[in-house]
């Protein structure tokens, strides 16, 4: 049992890291709150004084605000559905004995380590280019007219690109969960005459509920701030402007730091609302 002296020593050793992390989080948050109440235009007069809640009212009343929120939630929801559904399927397949299993697992997980900008550029130029892209050649091979993915099917294209990048993460978490499943349960169910579908539905899927919850929570936190893929591919055009990209436009393109800071506060509020919703709906599995 830890003594009072050892606990005090542990607190002292952890204190620098805790202070650093708090500073890392609180300083940007404090500055965002501070500028959200000011009219600050760096290239057009600088600090023009306090505006109160005017920035918040202007940002939320903008015609681009609610479409950006809707686009953000559509992208997050689409990526979550694809990565979890395909992640479960891939995890089950990778758990089966096969030749070169280790190499296959590395290849499946590899896309997660590709930078978002590189991933988006590869998809944009190698796959979705309407003239020389792989999809265009496939369309012509089957006698169809190639389409411009990033303009005619912009939102599904973004969902596809982001799903490709996050699918390895979901697969890795779900594969770890499947490998912890007691094989005797599956063998007993098979001996009792349970079909593969019943074994999946009543044994494997309930066992994966905690892992699915973890994937949902972690991916949602990161997907709410998606930016690089949109910046590289569509530039926020064709209905792909998310809340994060709208904030970028207000801060850098319009040079209105106060208005962008108010948008940042709204983004924090949205992230917390979604996180609380997920914790209430699916987070109960963590306590099961």
Layout of helices and strands, plus pairs?
Layout: H1 4-36, E1 38-41, E2 46-50, H2 54-60, H3 65-94, H4 101-109, H5 116-127, H6 134-141, H7 149-152, H8 154-179, H9 183-191, H10 196-207, H11 209-223, H12 228-233, H13 243-253, H14 257-281
Antiparallel strand pairs: 1-2
Helix pairs in contact: 1-14, 2-14, 3-8, 3-11, 3-13, 8-11, 11-14, 13-14
Transmembrane segments: 12-37, 73-94, 106-123, 214-238, 258-282
Subcellular location: Cell membrane
Membrane topology: Multi-pass membrane protein
Model description:
The protein has 288 residues and is mainly alpha-helical. The chain has one domain (4-287): MetI-like fold (Orthogonal Bundle), CATH 1.10.3720.10. Helices cover 72% and strands 3% of the residues. It is built from 14 helices and two strands. It has a two-stranded antiparallel sheet. A hairpin with a 4-residue loop joins β1 and β2 (46-50). α3 (65-94) crosses α13 (243-253) and α13 (243-253) packs antiparallel against α14 (257-281). It is globular and about 75 Å long. The model has no long low-confidence stretch (mean pLDDT 83). Belongs to the binding-protein-dependent transport system permease family. One of its GO terms (biological process) is transmembrane transport.
């Amino acid at each position: 049992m830890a003594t009072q002296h050892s606990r005090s020593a542990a607190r002292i050793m952890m204190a620098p890291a805790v202070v650093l992390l708090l500073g890392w989080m609180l300083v940007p948050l404090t500055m965002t709150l501070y500028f959200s109440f000011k009219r600050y235009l760096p290239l057009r007069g600088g600090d023009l004084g306090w505006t109160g809640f005017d920035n918040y009212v202007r940002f939320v009343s903008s015609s681009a605000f609610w479409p950006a929120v809707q686009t953000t939630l559509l992208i997050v929801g689409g990526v979550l559905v694809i990565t979890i559904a395909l992640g479960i399927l891939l995890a089950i397949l990778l758990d089966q004995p096969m030749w070169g299993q280790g190499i296959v697992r590395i290849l499946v997980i590899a896309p997660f380590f590709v930078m978002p900008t590189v991933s988006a550029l590869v998809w944009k130029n190698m796959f979705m280019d309407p003239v020389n892209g792989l999809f265009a050649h496939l369309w012509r091979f089957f006698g169809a007219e190639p389409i411009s993915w990033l303009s005619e099917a912009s939102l599904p294209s973004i969902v596809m690109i982001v799903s490709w990048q996050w699918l390895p993460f979901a697969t890795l978490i779900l594969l770890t969960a499947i490998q912890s499943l007691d094989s005797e349960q599956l063998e007993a169910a098979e001996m009792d005459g349970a079909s593969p579908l019943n074994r999946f539905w009543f044994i494997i899927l309930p066992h994966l509920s905690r892992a699915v919850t973890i994937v949902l929570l972690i991916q949602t936190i990161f997907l709410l701030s998606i930016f690089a893929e949109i910046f590289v591919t569509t530039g926020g055009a064709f209905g792909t402007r998310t809340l994060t990209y709208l904030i970028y436009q207000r801060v850098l393109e319009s040079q209105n730091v106060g208005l962008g800071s108010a948008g940042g506060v709204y983004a924090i509020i949205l992230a917390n609302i979604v996180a609380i919703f997920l914790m209430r709906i699916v987070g109960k599995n963590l306590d099961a």
